[in-house]
Design goal:
By secondary structure, the chain is of the alpha/beta class. The chain has a domain at about 20-25 and about 35-110 and about 200-260: P-loop containing nucleotide triphosphate hydrolases (Rossmann fold, 3-Layer(aba) Sandwich). The chain contains eight helices and eight strands; from the N terminus they run αβββαββααααβαββα. It has helices spanning about 1-30, 80-85, 110-115, 135-145, 150-160, 180-195, 210-215, 240-250; strands spanning about 40-50, 55-65, 70, 95-100, 100-105, 200-205, 220-225, 225-230. Strands 2-1-4-5 form a four-stranded antiparallel sheet, with helices on one face. A four-stranded mixed sheet has the order 6-3-7-8, sandwiched between helices. Helix 4 crosses helix 5. The longest helix has 28 residues, at about 1-30. The protein starts with a helix and ends in a 20-residue tail after the last helix. Mean pLDDT is about 80; it is low at about 30-35 and about 260-270.
């Protein structure tokens, strides 16, 4: 049983590697676009952590100005590594990471904070100052970039109103929470959609299958450090017929042999 499962997992990994090679070949055949470069671009990027673990391997990806893109895939597939490369929290072993046509790894280290100010990043653990109020947390970010106090006083309430926190201006940050309830998830996606409508490029790393399926935006799927799928309007995963059937049986409580949970007889069979 264990041997069969191991072989099956090996075949699945091989299939995903083949998908990644096919994606790379498609990227190479795409015609070169004239005019403005992608706002975000990775060119044959590989990132290796200390100890030899490969975070991402030979990833090529371009995101145009104003796009809304979901990055999906299982835990450990390279999604977080990709985001860290975009803000130069990590540097690649090979390849180029470009923002607005410029290789950010060629920037002097002292210029990196200025580059990051142009990239709004929402971290999973929030990165908030727990001893500051909601107002002060937002104001602090504006102070760092040199915004005048008079403008900060006007901008902070407007920003908090935009994200639905106008009534919590004097509150302190809540404790971090890993999972969001469906209503909150919808509210956040509505906010990101509104921001995207202003022309801002939005890249979302998520495990929320239902939200990705409903949004119907570009989906980039990663597996084992490689891009294995990139579709302009897609779902969370590109399931085969067999994978779809397995998931559907699980959701309906039906076993592999057509039995429902708690039923010892095949579906449709009369034991009498």
């Amino acid at each position: 049983m264990a041997t069969h499962r191991t072989r099956r997992m090996g075949r699945k990994r091989a299939a995903r590697r083949e998908d990644a090679r096919r994606h790379a070949a498609q990227q190479a055949r795409r015609p070169v676009r004239r005019g403005r470069p992608p706002i975000v671009e990775l060119r044959d990027v590989t990132q290796v952590y200390p100890g030899g673990h490969v975070g991402i391997e030979r990833v090529s990806l371009g995101i145009s100005r104003g796009e809304f893109v979901f990055i999906v895939g299982p835990t450990g597939c390279g999604k977080s590594t990709l985001i860290k490369l975009l803000i130069r929290e990590l540097e690649p072993a090979n390849g180029e990471v470009l923002i607005a046509g410029r290789d950010i790894n060629e920037l002097p280290r002292k210029r990196v904070p200025y580059m990051r100010r142009r990239i709004g990043t929402v971290f999973q653990d929030f990165k908030l100052l727990p001893n500051r109020t909601v107002y002060d947390n937002v104001a602090y970010a504006l102070q760092v970039i040199g915004e005048p106090r008079s403008q900060i006083r006007g901008k902070v309430p407007e920003i908090l109103r935009l994200v639905g926190l106008a009534g919590k201006i004097h509150n302190y940050p809540d404790e971090p929470t890993g999972n969001l309830d469906p209503v909150t998830s919808i509210g956040i996606m509505q906010l990101l959609y509104r921001i995207n409508r202003t022309g801002t490029t939005v890249v979302v790393v998520t495990h929320d299958r239902e939200m990705v399926d409903k949004m119907r935006r570009r989906v980039v799927e990663m597996s084992d450090g490689r891009v294995v799928r990139d579709v302009a309007v897609g779902d969370y995963s590109d399931e085969s017929t067999t994978e779809f059937a397995v998931r559907l049986r699980a959701e309906m409580g039906i076993g592999d042999e057509g039995q429902t949970n708690g039923d010892s007889h095949p579906a449709g069979h009369d034991p009498h």
